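Case study 2.
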Amino acid sequence: MVDPSVLQLRVVRDRHPGRWISAAAILVAFTMVIRPFATGQIEWSVVGQFLTMPAILNGLMNTVLMTACTMALGITLSVDFAVMFLSPNSVLRGSALFYIWFSVARRCFYNCCCGSIWR
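Prediction:
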């Protein structure tokens, strides 16, 4: 049974001004990035000259190499600790649980101290 006074209430949609403001900011930033390309204000010969410098190419290769090594290490460690956690051996399970708990607790402590939980 519904109270008759509830049926007389008017439904009002939520207003989200933050969404509109952030959408406008993104559009402005996108426009600022696209405008030089559209008006031809980019000296492509200079861009090509600087992008092919040995220091830039070495930095790019080092970045890709470090990313691949870090990804491989992270996948390997996570699979190892997952298997250790599923092991019937209590020592393996305990050490995996401690490592997993320590890494999560460290991240939570860092986020609490720095004031942001989204990092």
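The mean pLDDT is 88.
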